[in-house]
Amino acid sequence: MGRGRVQLKRIENKINRQVTFSKRRSGLLKKAHEISVLCDAEVGLIVFSTKGKLFEYSTDSCMERILERHERYSYAERQLNATDIITPGSWTLEHAKLKARLEVLQRNQKHYAGEELDTLSMKELQNLEHQLDSALKHIRSRKNQLMHESISELQKKDKALQEQNNNLSKQVKEREKEMAQQTPWEQQSHDHLNSSSFVLPHPFNNLHIGEAYPNAGDNGEVEGSSRQQQQNSASVMPPWMLRHLNG
Prior knowledge:
The protein has helices spanning 14-38, 63-81, 88-112, 122-196, 219-234, 239-246; strands spanning 44-48, 54-58. Strand 1 (44-48) and strand 2 form a beta hairpin. The protein has 6 helices and 2 strands; from the N terminus they run H-E-E-H-H-H-H-H.
């Protein structure tokens, strides 16, 4: 048979009441944690035992921020639902609330800076430590992200500079190769010009242009003299001039 329905009433036995409180408190804190994780809700839970001991749970260990948000929401809702006329007394009350809230914020700021910690209890110090640890995690995470982005940017710049350096080195090598190929060609062309140029022979000492030739009657002497002159000129005239004369 299943368990019967438990009647909700105060447990008279002190020991049983304490055991039930401990079990139900653990289950309540567990449920608060589950709903904050599963539903991404901002949860604040406060429980006082019969002896006045405090048990609390808050999302990201920031109970004060949740209470301030609750106060702002409650105040805004009260302002919307208010039907009475604002009086100078209400302004005085609002000023007192804002002043108290400002004092709380200033006190929290000093606590975050490590000042005026003597008035805090062990539980408050633990909550403050959790808040600072959470803040440090976010700060370090952001710092590491910026460092990785900076390193990635420097690596991109280094890669671009290496590519530019490789391109310049390639251009220099191509230029040197072109100069190395061009220099032997110029030397060969210069040598070819020197070899193709000719040196004029010695002056034609025996060639007398415009000199009177012997008469036609002296054929033998003329022919002998002509042959002698051709032989003498052949020794000093270039071949192309000889071909011209013989032709």
